Amino acid sequence: MFHSYLVNSLKFHKDRCINCKRCIEVCPHGVFSAGESHVELVHQARCMECGACALNCPVQAIEVESGVGCAWAMIRAALRGRDMDSGECSCGGDAGSCCGIE
Amino acid sequence: METSCCCSCSEQKISCSCSIFQTDSHITTANRIDHLLARWGYKRSGHTVRPGLYRLGNPDADSPVFASANYTISFDILRSNLKGFDAYILVLDTKGINVWCAAGKGTFGTDELVKKIESTGLSHIVSHRKIIVPQLGAPGISAHEVKRRSGFTVEYGPVRAADIPEYMKTGKATSEMRQVFFPIQDRLVLIPIELVHVAIPTIIISIILWFLAGPLAAFAAITAVITGTVLFPIFLPYLPTHDFSMKGFILGGLSAVPFSAMYAQSSDLPEWALAAGAIVPLLIIPAVVAYLGLNFTGSTPYTSRTGVKKEIFKYVPIMAAMTGIGTIIGISLCIFRLAGVI
Hints:
The complex is a heterodimer. Chain A contains three helices and four strands. By secondary structure, chain A is of the alpha+beta class. Chain A has one domain (1-89): Alpha-Beta Plaits (2-Layer Sandwich). Chain A has a two-stranded antiparallel ribbon with strand order 1-4. Chain A has a two-stranded antiparallel sheet with strand order 2-3. Helix content of chain B is 54%, strand content 10%. In chain B, strand 2 (19-23), helix 1 and strand 3 form a beta-alpha-beta unit. Chain B has 13 helices and seven strands. Chain B is of the alpha/beta class. Chain B is elongated, with a radius of gyration of 26 Å. The chains are: A alpha+beta, B alpha/beta. Chains A and B meet through helix 1, helix 2 and helix 3 of A and helix 2, helix 3, helix 9 and helix 13 of B.
């Protein structure tokens, strides 16, 4: 209860994995870990859907609907009658919200 | 910092701007003032570095190349951590936005990286074909695409620039260096911008409340906003539950109790009016703090879009209902008092 982050859009097709371990390298939350013939998806719930693993997977073994988990951007898009997923993160803009990392 | 010099690009097939800028690892007072202004949201998109290739120290054809964003804080953190190194820094045009956010938008991306490698004539300046990209740039960069299109191998460096010296020594980023954390100092630097965002509406609402319902109500409004923008980021990891909205309801509930108690013991109003009035802060303050807390998701490095969307559908209707009911009770009490009923 009160945990909305257990499920996300990350999908891993281990049959396609060539064990290059790029995903382990780029993931900032240790979602993947090394395995014998392919990597293992070990911490699905930690995924923040940044999309780095999918974009850097040379064999499309990873799928994720990447996007910025920013309520401010999504609420603003919804208020303007647009699709919430179209809500662009506006970090850096003068009126925008702000992400934490440099 | 930006003294331009001319490179030898005579042998190049593609056109290049023929200028390499010089930089160093020294952070000046002017740099620090610029960082402070950026943190306070002054001219949000004005904290830029000129995109292009920079020489740090005295690099040669074998020196490493680091990619960065053209946001002053990103660039300055990188160069200050490269003290003692001779290296090149390839600054991408991210429109003055930090690496991770720009990677999320795609401006720190494969296209821009390939474009900058070509336009600076990098392949004629260094003899190797390796570029070190910050790991948090990976959401925008496809390493194999960059390799295919430019011939350069992307090597992902550690998340934090402070780990670069160690990384350069061992040639490897440990799993610790690859993880993102959100420690107190990272949360504290975000507070100014959170405050700036809500300052004007808060001042207006407080003034209105002062005249309609008195100084206690105005003070309650300011408290709600400070709780949501200052205390919330500070106490984030210690607040119970995972959902930001729920954390906000809890923190807001705590900060509402004194106002509720003060109102209940205040004037010589009839008991039912005191009880009704005491409920108002318990409804509105938690809703406001929960909303501000929910909005902090975009500033953290770990909330997924799927989860945030779920939170919005789950909690925003509750916040709206609490605020609506609280406001109706509050206005009714005001009207009763003005009409002389109580």
